[in-house]
Amino acid sequence: MQDLFDRKTDPYFGSLRYLGYLLLPAGIIVAGAAAWSGADAVQLVSVGGLLFLLGLLFQTTHHGFQIDFKNRRVREYLTMFGVKSGNWVPLPQFQKVVLSSNLAPADDHDHAHDHHHDDKPAPLVTWYTIGLYSASPEANFELRTGHQQDALKTLHLLAAKLGVPAEDKTDASL
Q: Transmembrane residues, as ranges (predicted)?
């Protein structure tokens, strides 16, 4: 079994990450235009490179959560261009891992959909929260996902690695 649990939790730039899909090819096209355009090649390559880097930044920047079981430490991090930054702290003595679910509007959780909500509220989607609890009634750390199977797998993995009970408080009919 792996000694490091690593989970991306959410994109730093939210829905702007979709803009990254446009900026990446736009940067390549603008930079490549220097080869056949009469415009200033240095300027085109510079602008194209900047667009490409912005697209890459929007695509690769996200929050995450890591537990190092071997060294008994935990951190929440921000990653940019694949480089993770965040301070490690000693792993608390967790008492339990709890899985819960709730319904929330899709647009509240950066859920991609291709319609507008001018005339009606966003559709409700089920979100799953895996909470790591120590002695306090509030979770020390929470992980969220929209996928039930991923949530259940994570619940049981963390409970097994931490040696604590797993509680599934989700509605079994979901």
A: 21-39, 45-65
d(CA 89, CA 94): 14
Task: Report the alpha-carbon distance of residue 100 to residue 85 in Å, rounded.
Answer: 29
The answer to whether the Cα torsion of 102, 106, 107, 109 is positive or negative is: positive
- The string of pLDDT tens digits covering residues 34-43 is 878 777 888 9
CA distance 109 to 142: 15
How far does CA 36 lie from the centroid of its chain? 40
Q: Domain span at residue 32?
A: 1-91
The pTM assigned to this predicted structure is: 0.68
Please answer whether residues 158 and 97 qualify as being in contact, where contact means their C-beta atoms are separated by less than 8 angstroms. yes
Task: Look at the alpha carbons of 130, 63, 14, 61 in this order and tell me if their dihedral is positive or negative.
Answer: negative
Please say which residue of 40, 75, 91 terminates a domain: 91
Indicate if 41 and 77 belong to the same structural domain: yes
Residues 45, 60: Cα–Cα separation, whole Å: 22
**Contact of 164 with 92, CB cutoff 8 Å:** no
